[in-house]
Structures are given as structure tokens and as C-alpha cells.
Amino acid sequence: MKRWAAVVGAAFLLGLVIVWWGWRLWTGPGPLFLPDRESLPAPSVVQMRIPPGMTLAAAADSLASRGLLEHPAVFLAGARLTGKGRALRAGLYELPASASLRDLLQVLTSGAAVQVKVTIPEGLDAEEIAGLVSGALGFSPDDFLATADSLVMTAALQGWLLKGGEFAAEQYDSLLSTESARRPRRFRWCEGHLAPDTFHFAEGTDAATAALFLVSTQWARLDSVMTGSGTATVLDLSRQDILTLASIVEAEARRDDERPLIAAVYVNRLLQGWRLEADPTVAFILRKKGKRLFYRDLEISSPFNTYRNRGLPPGPIGSPGRAALQAAAHPDSLCRAMFFVSDGQDGHVFSRTAQEHQAAVQEFRRTRGADRLNQND
What residues make up the domain containing 47? Predict the structure, then answer.
């Protein structure tokens, strides 16, 4: 009995030692070296990619090869005991070089992958946005645009976007096809529907996921501004119309405080049955954004040319931000101006009559001429 008690006691002590050793390995700091590179300083953070479908054993091998893991067997045993043996999440992770086995497993199963920062400035067109997002996330811009176009077209066919439902959507689709055949500019369904802002995407986000996120974000913003009485009520405008007006306001404005005034000028013109005569619509057609327009440019034959056609153009000319959407939906109700022109700085001069406007134009030209003379001196 004494021998049996001694054996049991020794086994118990050995078990305690094994448990203590395993717990120490599981929770203690990891190695601070890279294999075969002990002479180099260890990095504080190591990146590791978990591809979809990677097994836990393969992940342990990858961790060991990066110098983050000395005891793969303990790592695998701990993962199974904690029920996380099949919980790896795909993505690119930043792992602390001295992290414990427990912390490594927590990171790799959390889904907290490295975030890719993408900044989309207000006013960019769909192709520009596709280039930015696809360049940052590594997918095809054509796949991104195709998904976004499909999302917006579906919303139009269901009657959410355009007044007239399926019939209006078919007319708009025909118009876009005709325009793309006649002009180098390809007009897209998703134009204006891709939200501008700074976003953080998980590394490895695919084209469809990114497109859905940007479109749904812009739609949520659009719905948030279309509350109460405003432009949509006064002029009986659809969501697409508000988005279109906002895109023109975005292209014209440089200051937030002027956006409601610029929107009011265009609403006033629409109410009077005037042509909008908005330079940005012509610049959009001709891909001359930010460039000088000539009188011959204003004669281009296109339903998007607001110098030749009354009312709003058929669709947006870029993606407006929150402030432009708010201004388009709720312009300054006290503004009676029908004209505006640059003041030579960052703002505009607003006028009610053609005579006042011409005087402001002459002042702008005089100021611009004086500035050019000063630059040549």
C-alpha cells in the first residue's frame, strides 16, 4: 500500500508538473528570435496570411517557420482543448513576436485581420473610384464596376431608385448604351452611387463585397437626407434625381457653407424652367474635369449637356459626399439667386438678375487678369 501510495503521489506530482509546464508554455511569452537569423534583431510584429481553408496544423507550421512558435504540439493541443481547432479566420494578421500561444490563437481566430485604408475623395466618378479601391484591395476594377452596376440596376427595376420602375430603368439603360457607343465616356449605372469617405476594409476583401458596401453606404446616406419637405417634394424628384443634383453641387462647390446656396440656384432654375447650364456636366462628358471649357464644348450633343437640355441630366456625374446630398435635398430656402460665378478665391458671388451676374463676371475677369499680371511681374 505504501508503494502504491508513493506511485500515485509521484504520478500526481508529475501531472502537476506537466500541467504547470503546459500552462506556462500556453500563456508565457513566445520566442524572440527567427530561425537561422539569431544575429539579426527580432521584429516586434510579424505578418502572416491565413488563406481560406488553411488547417490548424498548417498554421502551426507557418508560425514555427516565422519564429513565433517553438512547441507546435502544445499549440495544437491547446486549440483543441479550447474548442478552436477549426476556428481559423482567413486574412492577413499582424502578430506580436513575443505573443503567447494563447494570444496567437486568439488573434488568428478573431477575424481581426489587417485593415486596408481606402480614401475616396468626394466628386470622383465611378471609374476613378474603381481604380482607387481595386488598387488598394487587389481585385479587378471591371469586376467591381460590374457588381456595382448590377446592384443599382436591380434597385431601379424594383422602383426604388427611379420613378416609373421597370419601364424607366429600361429607358435609362438604353440611354447609357447609346451614350457609350457615341462617346468615349462610358456612362454607368453605379455612377454617383459609390460613397466617398475614408473606409477600412479587411485585407483580402473581394470586389463584390467592396461594391456592396460602398453602394449600400451611399443609399443609406441618400435615404437619411430625404426626410421632411425639401427638393424632392417641391419638384417631385426621385432618389436618382436628388443624387444627380447633389453630384453637380459637389462638382461646383468648394466650401460647405455654399453648397445649400448652389443647390438653391439650380432648384430655382428648375422651378423657372431654365436650363441648368452647369459646366461640370459638360466637363464630365468630355473627361475635362478641372480643365478649361470652350464655347464649342458647350455644343456637344448629349442628354447630359445641361446647356442644350432643360432639367436635370439623366444621372449623376460623380459621387457626392454627405454635405452635397444634404444640400441637394434641402437647399437654402431663402436664396432667390439665379446665377453664381467664382469670386476668384474659394467661393462664389450669387446674383438674382442677369445684370448683377454680368457685373460679377466682369469683376472676376478683372481680378483674374490682375492676378495674372502680378504673377508675370
Answer: 29-35+42-113
